[in-house]
Design a protein that fits this description.
It is a single chain. By secondary structure, this protein is mainly alpha-helical. It has nine helices and no strands. It starts with a helix and ends with a helix.
Length: about 200
């Protein structure tokens, strides 16, 4: 019994120690990835869109950035989830808005609920997708006017920008690899090994 208690304490100390370690390099690359990912979208919005069309940067991209730059090994942060989750949720949100446009107490929960079920069904669960669906039914101004164009821009185009930036910053050092467990990573590793041999 004493041995079991000592072992439990030892394991607990190790877990707490590991969870409280600060990896400055990891945080640096997370910061840079998020800065450039969101920065590019914000730059396009502020320099290339008219003021009345400023809907390229949506709030759910901030939550996606936390996953794809800060928790890159999470299954919820993988490209299929990032892109598929947002696109499916946007379609769900716009569809609900088309059917029930003026009843917020019904359209908001329907949009989020449908987006969750559709993401689960398609194995593209990405928590910020729920926000993307909610934005489609709760926003005023330009987003409701976009209709299904909302799915292509800002949603799909913004996701692709975030994804491309994630590919660059999450694979720039040997300690980080994104997407996790993917042919793309194996290809990158082969190229690195080939360069090292030369």
């Amino acid at each position: 019994m004493k041995q079991k208690i000592k072992r439990t304490i030892r394991v607990s100390k190790y877990v707490i120690y590991k969870e409280t370690l600060v990896d400055y390099k990891e945080h640096f690359w997370s910061f840079l990835g998020a800065f450039f990912g969101i920065g590019i979208i914000a730059f396009i919005q502020s320099h290339y869109l008219l003021e009345q069309e400023n809907v390229f940067l949506i709030g759910s991209f901030g939550a996606s950035s936390v996953l794809i730059y800060g928790a890159i090994q999470s299954p919820l942060a993988q490209p299929r989830n990032l892109i598929g989750g947002h696109v499916i949720s946007a379609i769900a949100g716009v569809t609900v808005y088309q059917i029930v446009p003026d009843i917020l107490w019904l359209s908001a929960p329907l949009a989020v609920s449908f987006s969750i079920v559709l993401m689960q069904y398609t194995k593209t669960l990405h928590p910020p997708g729920g926000a993307t669906a909610l934005i489609a039914v709760t926003s005023s101004g330009k987003i409701p006017e976009l209709g299904y164009w909302y799915v292509l821009s800002p949603v799909l185009s913004g996701c692709l920008i975030l994804f491309l930036v994630a590919l660059f910053f999450n694979n720039i050092t040997p300690n980080r690899s994104y997407p996790a467990h993917n042919r793309f990573i194996r290809l990158l590793k082969k190229k690195r090994e080939h360069k090292m041999k030369k």
